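// run 5 | inverse folding | seed 20
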């Protein structure tokens, strides 16, 4: 399993340092002693798993969970840490939306095995979700045929050619600045690409551009940068598709 990112929220110094030591052997981590500080961190970076002590006093644990779910999706696991030895608590916290509960004091070996097990199940779920998801087509042929009914083939092909030039300009910009921040200018370009791809039936580009725009507007920089890699890949894929499709791109030269 590749290195994951884990967020630790624990106000007891000794316990937090133990969690940091154990998790640091296998994964990257960030660590905070208060919920509010952790939430500020979550606004800019999404971890794979969050460990949260339910005995923290600066924010009620269920309210913390609600705020976490508003910032990150369900693929991020949230695990409660409790020093109250009461097995009935597990059912309660699971019903409230936590993914699991770990009792303190922990046993180091069992703790690591538990974390690894949770992350492995998470990875399997992500793969299953991806396999079940219908990926959008590179080009929706129905949209292309509808456009042909609205104008001559030469005109429509010129529209697609102009769009590939827009794609190429964005690709070059991303290659020059691979760690682009969500500036207004870049978001404007992505918004234009999104609108044009939707009109032309370039559905994979539309989905990728929509995701980048939705991450860029709230300034989620890390996720935004990651989304740009996928957007660039869909732009390149679309260009290659048109070049290999004789009824589209090459027809322009006839």
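// decoded
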């Amino acid at each position: 399993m590749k290195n994951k990112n884990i967020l630790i929220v624990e106000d007891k110094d000794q316990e937090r340092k133990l969690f940091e030591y154990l998790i640091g052997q296998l994964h990257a981590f960030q660590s905070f002693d208060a919920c509010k500080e952790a939430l500020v961190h979550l606004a800019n970076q999404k971890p794979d798993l969050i460990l949260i002590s339910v005995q923290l006093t600066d924010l009620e644990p269920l309210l913390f969970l609600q705020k976490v779910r508003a910032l990150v999706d369900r693929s991020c696991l949230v695990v409660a840490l409790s020093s109250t030895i009461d097995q009935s608590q597990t059912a309660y916290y699971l019903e409230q939306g936590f993914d699991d509960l770990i009792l303190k004091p922990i046993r180091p070996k069992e703790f690591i095995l538990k974390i690894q097990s949770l992350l492995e199940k998470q990875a399997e779920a992500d793969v299953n979700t991806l396999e079940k998801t219908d990926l959008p087509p590179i080009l929706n042929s129905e949209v292309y045929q509808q456009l042909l009914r609205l104008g001559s083939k030469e005109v429509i092909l010129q529209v697609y050619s102009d769009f590939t030039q827009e794609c190429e300009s964005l690709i070059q910009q991303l290659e020059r600045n691979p760690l682009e921040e969500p500036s207004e200018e870049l978001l404007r370009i992505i918004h234009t690409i999104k609108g044009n791809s939707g009109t032309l039936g370039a559905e994979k580009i539309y989905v990728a551009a929509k995701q980048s725009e939705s991450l860029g507007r709230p300034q989620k920089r890390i996720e935004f940068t990651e989304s740009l890699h996928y957007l660039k890949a869909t732009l390149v894929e679309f260009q290659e598709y048109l070049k290999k499709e004789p009824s589209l791109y090459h027809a322009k030269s006839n």
